[in-house]
Inverse folding.
C-alpha cells in the first residue's frame, strides 16, 4: 500500500481491511489452485486408456458447496466494507481545522478557514512544463498544507466539471461534483511528510496534469504558512462566484487582471 501506518486514523483502518481481504482471497486461491492441480493429476488419462472417462451429470453436495461459499465470502466482504466505510465517512464534530478544496480544469484552489478571522487562500494554476525537457515542472504544482496531530474537515467543490480529490497516501478519494458539496474528514498523526495528490476523475484534455502536493506540517508551521498567505494579500473566500458558469472566470494570482476562462479550459493558464 502506498502509505505508512499511523499517517491518519483512516489509513490504518483501510490498510487493515485490504490486508485481511487479500489474506482471505489468497487462501481461497490456494485452495482453488490446489484442487485444480489435484483434479488434473488424479483424473488424467493413463497409459493404455481409451475413450472418455466416466461422466457425471452433477454432484449435489459439491454444487451446494460451490454456491454457499461464494455467497458467504461476498456477504463477509460487504459487511466489513460497509462497517469501515461508515466509520470513515462519520463526520468529525468541531474539527480543529477546516479547509475547502476547489477542483477546476486543470488545477486547484485551497481556502483555509481561520477562527475569528477572514479565511486565506492559495490559488493554483495549471502545472507548467519545463521548456527544455517538456516534463512537468514540479515547482509549479499547487500545494495543500495540512497540520499534523489534528482533526480536519476538507470541503470539496468543483468549479466546472466533475473531478475527484485524491490524496494517494491517505488511501482515500472523493468526488467533486458541480453544484454538490462533499466533505471528507481525517485525523492526522504525528508524521510530517510530503504527499501526492491528483484528480482521480477523467475531466478533460489535461486531466493527467491535474496534480498537487500535500505538505503535512506541524500546527505551528501550518499557522505560519497561513500568515504568509495573508501577507501576500490572499485574504477572503474564493467562493462559487469564481466558477466559470457565473461568468466571473478564475483569477491568476500572478496577474492583476482576470484570466479568460476559455484559456483555462484550453490548458493555457
Amino acid at each position: 500500500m502506498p502509505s505508512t501506518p499511523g499517517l491518519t486514523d483512516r489509513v490504518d483502518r483501510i490498510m487493515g481491511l485490504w490486508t485481511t481481504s487479500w489474506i482471505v482471497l489468497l487462501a481461497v486461491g490456494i485452495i482453488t489452485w490446489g484442487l485444480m492441480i489435484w483434479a488434473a493429476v488424479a483424473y488424467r488419462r493413463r497409459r493404455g486408456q481409451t475413450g472418455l472417462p466416466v461422466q457425471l451429470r452433477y454432484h449435489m453436495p459439491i454444487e451446494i458447496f460451490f454456491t454457499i461459499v461464494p455467497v458467504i465470502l461476498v456477504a463477509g466482504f460487504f459487511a466489513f466494507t460497509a462497517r469501515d466505510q461508515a466509520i470513515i465517512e462519520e463526520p468529525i464534530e468541531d474539527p480543529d481545522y477546516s479547509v475547502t478544496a476547489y477542483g477546476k480544469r486543470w488545477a486547484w484552489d485551497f481556502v483555509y478557514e481561520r477562527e475569528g478571522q477572514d479565511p486565506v487562500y492559495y490559488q493554483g494554476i495549471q502545472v507548467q512544463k519545463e521548456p527544455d525537457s517538456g516534463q512537468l515542472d514540479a515547482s509549479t504544482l499547487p500545494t495543500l498544507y495540512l497540520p499534523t496531530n489534528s482533526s480536519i474537515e476538507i470541503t470539496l467543490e468543483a468549479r466546472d466539471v466533475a473531478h475527484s480529490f485524491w490524496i494517494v497516501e491517505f488511501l482515500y478519494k472523493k468526488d467533486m461534483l458541480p453544484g454538490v458539496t462533499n466533505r471528507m474528514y481525517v485525523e492526522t498523526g504525528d508524521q510530517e511528510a510530503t504527499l501526492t495528490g491528483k484528480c482521480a476523475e477523467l475531466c478533460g484534455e489535461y486531466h493527467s496534469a491535474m496534480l498537487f502536493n500535500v505538505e503535512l506540517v506541524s500546527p505551528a508551521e501550518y499557522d505560519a504558512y497561513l500568515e504568509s498567505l495573508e501577507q501576500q494579500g490572499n485574504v477572503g473566500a474564493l467562493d462559487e462566484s469564481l466558477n466559470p458558469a457565473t461568468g466571473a472566470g478564475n483569477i491568476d494570482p500572478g496577474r492583476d487582471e482576470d484570466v479568460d476562462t476559455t484559456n483555462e479550459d484550453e490548458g493555457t493558464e
